[in-house]
Design goal:
By secondary structure, this protein is of the alpha/beta class. 44% of the residues lie in helices and 16% in strands. It has one domain: Luciferase-like domain (TIM Barrel, Alpha-Beta Barrel), CATH 3.20.20.30. The strands form two sheets. An eight-stranded parallel β-barrel has the order 1-2-3-5-8-9-10-12, surrounded by nine helices. Helix 1 packs parallel to helix 11 and helix 3 packs across helix 5. The chain is globular, with a radius of gyration of 19 Å.
């Protein structure tokens, strides 16, 4: 379902005013599609998040933006990494994602998670319940969204949400519904929900961490009677690429300063180098058991860098 994705987490670009912002974002998406990326992702946030930029940096509403990207692209899958379950009633979320599926001729992916950014919730007036309740809400939302993607008039009554013979017309383009990706690496709750409900998951971390998380997921799949091969397993992480190793190392300095990581942390989390080195590092993550890789780039506004990344990474597959 996902082999190579590009996440666009920042909308702060040099010399790009607000009235030209979407044109640059669309340019990034079109360039990525042409370079071999098979999916485009945006964050579902209302404020910019730490490690990406100041909280006051521009942040666009995810599904409005994805619909605009859909109109400019023709092949890439489109989704959020990931929608916070607390931001929208799950039945409305299913309707929104179905609408994106129609607009994009069947390219929508529902990315969903338990939400974490308390500042956004407080600022926008959303309730921010304890993590246990957020996980309960996530499980109910997964059941509601799956039902609305695959059934004609589903009903559901849970502790937090309900639907009653709900209509979702027009139906999703694909007969088996819109694929669902659950984000997060929590071993007791999140990965168990992946095993029970998800078509895909998205993990974080270095190669030893990824191997461990995949082992945990496999155990959960065994417990619920699911073949783990049915689940597309991906990792999100930063990418720094340059036409030469020296240029990549120059970019590393600026990226490390923004992230605030130590050298060891940086090397564990970031794929970095010239095209050959980037391809080798990507292959190492695939060899650890992943099916797909999703990257973000600080300099994605530089379309040449996006094109170079696509060319390098597609060779890794």
């Amino acid at each position: 379902m996902i082999r190579l994705g590009l996440q666009i987490p920042s909308f702060t670009y040099p010399d790009v005013p607000d009235d030209r912002l979407f044109e640059r974002i669309a340019g990034i998406a079109v360039t990525a599609e042409g370079a071999g990326f098979d999916s485009i992702w945006v964050m579902d946030h209302l404020y910019q998040i730490p490690f990406v930029g100041p909280v006051t940096d521009p942040m666009l509403e995810a599904y409005t933006l994805l619909a605009g990207i859909a109109a400019r692209t023709s092949k890439v899958g489109l989704g959020t990494l990931v929608s916070g379950v607390t931001y929208r009633n799950p039945a409305l979320l299913a309707k929104i994602v179905t609408t994106l599926d129609i607009v994009s001729s069947g390219r929508a992916i529902l990315g969903i998670g338990a939400a974490w950014n308390e500042d956004e919730h407080r600022g926008y007036g959303f309730d921010f319940p304890p993590v246990r309740e957020r996980m309960e809400r996530l499980e109910e939302a997964l059941q509601i969204c799956r039902a609305m993607f695959t059934e004609e008039t589903p009903s559901f009554k849970g502790r937090h949400y309900r639907i009653d013979g709900v209509l979702n017309h027009p139906r999703p383009v694909r007969p088996d519904g819109i694929p669902i990706l659950v984000g997060g690496s929590g071993e007791q709750k999140t990965l168990r929900l992946v095993a029970k409900y998800a078509d895909a998951c998205n993990l974080f971390g270095d190669i030893p961490t990824i191997r461990h998380k995949l082992q945990v997921l496999e155990r959960h799949c065994q417990e619920v009677g699911r073949d783990p091969a049915e689940i597309t397993k991906t990792r999100l992480g930063p990418l720094v690429i340059g036409p030469t190793q020296a240029e990549a190392e120059r970019k590393d300095v600026a990226t490390r300063e923004v992230r605030g990581w130590t050298e060891d942390q940086y090397r564990a989390m970031v794929v970095s180098g010239d095209p050959d080195e980037v391809a080798n590092q990507a292959r190492a993550f695939l060899d650890a058991g992943l099916d797909g890789l999703i990257f973000n780039m600080r300099d994605a506004y530089d379309l040449d860098s996006v094109a170079l990344a696509g060319k390098a990474l597609t060779s890794a597959f």
